[in-house]
Structure formats: structure tokens, C-alpha cells
Amino acid sequence: MDIHKVKLIDGQIALAADVRRKLDLHIGDTVLFDVREGEVRIRSARSMLRKIQAQLQGCPPGGGLDSEALSIEHRAKGKPE
What CATH code is assigned to 7-76? Predict the structure, then answer.
């Protein structure tokens, strides 16, 4: 576990430079706070985007049902579109 002490200044959290480097944070970056059971997990929006992109790598483009395929499926089941 890598614990760092931070300061709350005028309602803002000030992260030390070494923490910002470890998180690859830069001035103006968007930061996401995940609050669970009294704890906070901080990550950059960029890292979250990378994680989502990695998860989508295995999905074929257009792999979901498009509206036409959904309409055909509903008609086959006798449902209104």
C-alpha cells in the first residue's frame, strides 16, 4: 500500500508533486473520485478512458444490435417497434 498525506485547502485537495507524477496528472486534468465505504479512490479521467478502451478491444465494431436488427427481431416476435 502506498499511502500519501494530502492537505485540504479552501475545500480543495492539494496533491504533492510525487503523487501527481505517479498518477500522471497535469494542471487542468480532470480527476475522478470513486467514494466507497468511507474511502476515496482517485484516478485521472485519461486512465479511466484507457481502461474502457482496453475493455472494448475485444468487442467487434458494430457488435451490438442496430435499430434495424432490433426492429426485425421485434417483428419476428410480434412486438410493436
Answer: 2.10.260
